[in-house]
Amino acid sequence: MIESRLTELGITLPEAASPSFNYLPVTLHNGIAYVSGQMPKVDGEVRVFGKVGGEVDLETAREEARICILQGLACLKAALGSLDRIERILKMNGYVASARGFNAQPKVIDAASDLLVQIFGDAGRHARAAVGVAELPRNAAVEIEMTVAFGD
Amino acid sequence: MIESRLTELGITLPEAASPSFNYLPVTLHNGIAYVSGQMPKVDGEVRVFGKVGGEVDLETAREEARICILQGLACLKAALGSLDRIERILKMNGYVASARGFNAQPKVIDAASDLLVQIFGDAGRHARAAVGVAELPRNAAVEIEMTVAFGD
Amino acid sequence: MIESRLTELGITLPEAASPSFNYLPVTLHNGIAYVSGQMPKVDGEVRVFGKVGGEVDLETAREEARICILQGLACLKAALGSLDRIERILKMNGYVASARGFNAQPKVIDAASDLLVQIFGDAGRHARAAVGVAELPRNAAVEIEMTVAFGD
After folding, report:
1. The complex's ipTM?
2. B133 at A interface, C-beta within 8 A
3. For residue A114, which residues of chain B lie inside 8 Å, CB to CB?
């Protein structure tokens, strides 16, 4: 059903990018999926670099946030077999590489939250923390991690 | 009992502030409450702005940390019906907007930890991480999230 | 068995450092250990100060990351009685105090991930987020927290 919802929304999930380092995209334990911090990769590459409020504008950052979520969902699909096993998005942590004086992190991360609610409905509504960090891996603008409840 | 403890301590919980963005203050799953990053809002507004160690001094930052906790408890009360259902504060993540060279994040966040222990006793004793971030939403000085165990 | 693995690897765990502030090194609930953000302390003291990519070079930062893990394992041993009760490292969050323009946080935190896999094998393979923060407590270069599944 989530797959057909993605089709309705015109969303195609990317390939789940393999981490370039020694960690797993997702671990599963006791009905909880721990999703690694997702980079905004398209075709395996980060394409937008710099600080939001500096080199990166708000709309571009919001698109990067959406890309992080699509990567995360691709990883969840690979780990769970199907996105239909997702019962609830419990928590999201959004890290925004922030230029000095940029304080609209919630507007950036809201694009990710909106996308989850579009896709999953009420099951996509989550708790969240959004903070502005000094630097992100590969000079990405946004990184997002999730905690997700799943069933059989 | 926690309510009477709050009265003893002279603490009145604020109204639980509704998030201004598309997320929930708290999600509940399998006995765990995931509490969103709390802003130090009084009457729905952040009132202290800037970096700790810069525009914001240590004592003011500590008071902001306490306000984050009161907001978090107000949200937990709204989600659980009663704070008496809280079994244990498991984890706190404290983000301190930090001026260059400010490294006393633990002193800031300790005000939040002390308050939880005052209110909940041993059940308020938690694991914690405190870090210094570049920028926070609304130019707040402190943001705090929690993971909390609850029962019936 | 993990103890003999540590001996094989020539690793001696340090004393579990007591937090200097009002929190616990580890909380346990329902088979999950929440491990506080670990500082790279040797004999109870942080010894390397500054930002990675600035005063602190990559190799030194990687060693600091390993020290955080040893501290975390010492705390887990104290909390669980034995490291053999660890079933899985579920999640690691690595915070790297980052000089402007330093974006190799994953290379720093990979030293921590590698060490966990060396010690625990597949059970040490975890989800992870690595971010670059503005400042860390005591001007440390690295701070690492973990979420760990354990059994009887």
Report:
1. 0.97
2. yes
3. 22
